[in-house]
Design a protein that fits this description.
Elements (H helix, E strand, L loop, with lengths): L1 E3 L10 H23 L2 H7 L7 H20 L2 E4 L2 E8 L1 E7 L13 H15 L4 E7 L3 E8 L2 H9 L13 H9 L10 E7 L8 H10 L2 E8 L5 E2 L17 E2 L3 H10 L4 E4 L4 H11 L4 E8 L2 E3 L1 H17 L18
Parallel strand pairs: 4-5, 4-7, 7-8, 8-11
Antiparallel strand pairs: 1-2, 2-13, 3-12, 5-6, 9-10
Helix pairs in contact: 3-10, 4-5, 6-7, 7-8
Length: about 350
């Protein structure tokens, strides 16, 4: 199956019909100018070496080379096969807090960026597991449905930003509830909801949602990102977020709330700081979950095909150079572009 890794370049193909129309316009004007000199049949007899079709062929070859080069820029790829495999693993839904407070930089490079790095490292340790991604602030939605395609998970992860959700706040309960509905229907498999947040829950109901998850056999892990001492929230212009009175807003990790939600969800609270301790602890906790048989659709890695397109473009350009606009006097009797 042919796919393009950079499909945005395919829009450049719109240049082709524009160039064709420009060529037709130029040909039309040239024909009008020739008519001013005299009868076209007489002019044709006076210019026996001028070919009507050779310029068209050369132009077509150039357009073909241009189209192939554009396709090459779009990085054509071919997947060799798709297979369905049975694997033994767990299912994990990651709920990532993307509220504005996650921009705080009390964890380097920021709370949100540290969370992304943690999830990316987590996927490196997954082999037979399924992963889903929910983002939340004052609202929550599924960023990535549960899958075993870790490459796609990393791609979706890079696009996460607080601007994805207009409703600000932190509704952990809504995120957990949405995550519960995002698992597959397979039986006898370990399931985990991993909430990455600074614990500033503005809506309430998080513990009740965690208890509901526990009743369904789902463990809720809370990863608290940030410092309990608090930190200002950057706003992008070198300043920091301020309240209505002009005072700088400080955001602090609410560890107490995080521990209570993790306990209600029969999970573990893990503090995320500038070390890799949280990563190791989370990996250890997930390995303890019951592993069950999961059905996975496995896509083989795509092979780059730009080399073939590059060779084709070179061949078209060589052919364009070899075709002369005027007939070669030595080959006058060879008529490749006109019927005898």
């Amino acid at each position: 199956m042919l796919r393009f890794d950079a499909p945005i370049y395919l829009w450049l193909l719109l240049i082709i019909p524009v160039l064709v129309m420009m060529r037709m316009f130029v040909n039309h004007r040239q024909k009008k100018r020739l008519k001013k000199f005299g009868d076209l049949k007489l002019l044709k007899a006076l210019m026996p070496n001028v070919s009507r079709f050779r310029p068209m062929v050369k132009f077509g070859l150039l357009l073909g080379a241009l189209a192939v080069l554009i396709l090459m820029l779009a990085r054509p790829q071919v997947g060799t096969r798709i297979s369905h495999e049975k694997r033994n693993g767990i299912e994990a839904i990651i709920c990532m807090d993307i509220s504005n407070s996650m921009k705080a930089e009390d964890v380097a490079p920021s709370r949100l960026d540290k969370s992304k790095m943690l999830v990316e490292n987590l996927t490196e340790n997954f082999t037979n597991d399924k992963l889903g991604l929910v983002v939340f602030a004052g609202d929550a939605f599924v960023q990535l449905p549960i899958t075993s395609d870790y490459v796609s998970a990393k791609m979706f992860l890079q696009n996460i930003d607080p601007s994805l959700i207009a409703t600000q706040g932190t509704d952990i309960a809504k995120a957990i509830t949405l995550a519960m509905r995002s698992f597959t229907q397979q039986d006898k498999i370990g399931r985990a909801i991993i909430v990455i947040t600074d614990g500033e829950d503005h809506e309430g109901g998080a513990m009740e949602a965690a208890r509901e998850a526990r009743k369904k056999g789902i463990n809720v892990f809370i990863l608290g990102v940030g410092s309990t001492k608090g930190a200002p929230i950057p706003v992008g212009d070198g300043g920091y977020m301020a309240d209505a009175s002009g005072q700088t807003v400080m955001t602090a990790l609410n560890e107490q709330m995080c521990r209570e939600v993790a306990k209600a969800g029969s999970g573990t609270y893990i503090h995320v700081d500038n070390t890799s301790d949280a990563q190791k602890q989370l990996n250890d906790e997930l390995t303890r979950l019951q592993k069950g048989e999961t059905n996975s659709v496995i896509y083989s890695e795509y092979d780059e095909q730009f080399q073939a397109f590059g060779i084709l473009a070179i061949l078209l350009l060589i052919a364009e150079i070899c075709v002369l606009e005027a007939r070669n006097p030595l080959l006058r009797n060879v008529r490749l572009f006109k019927k005898k």
